[in-house]
Amino acid sequence: MIHALKTAPVHFEASAAGVKGFEVRKNDRPYSRGDYVALNEWNGEKYTGKCTLHKIVYILSNTEYCKEGYVILGLEPCAIRTRGETQEPIPCNREVPVIVEGKGI
Predict the structure, then answer these.
(1) What is the pLDDT of residues 56-70, one digit of tens each?
(2) Taking CA atoms, which of 12, 64, 77, 100 is between 20 and 30 Å from 46?
C-alpha cells in the first residue's frame, strides 16, 4: 500500500536529502511494515510538485515513547523511475555501522 502524505518544505527537504529517516504521524491510517509513504511537499497553500517515496521499515506506537494516537515511522528511501529508465545507485553518506554476524560492529 502507498500512503500519500503532505509534508512541509523543511521536513520534505530533510527527507529528500536522506538526513531524516523517520516521520511522526497521526495513527489514522493502516500503516504496516513494508508499505510505502509518498511524501508530497505542501507549502501551506498548494502542492509544489515535489515528491519522494520511502518504504516503511519500522513502526513505533508505544505510548511510552510517542504521544497516544501517533506513530513514528522508520523510513528507507526508494528510487522512483519511469518504465525503461535506468539510474545509478544513490550513495548513502550516513555513517551507519555494519554488523557482521559473529564479528560485532
Answers:
(1) 999 999 999 999 999
(2) 77
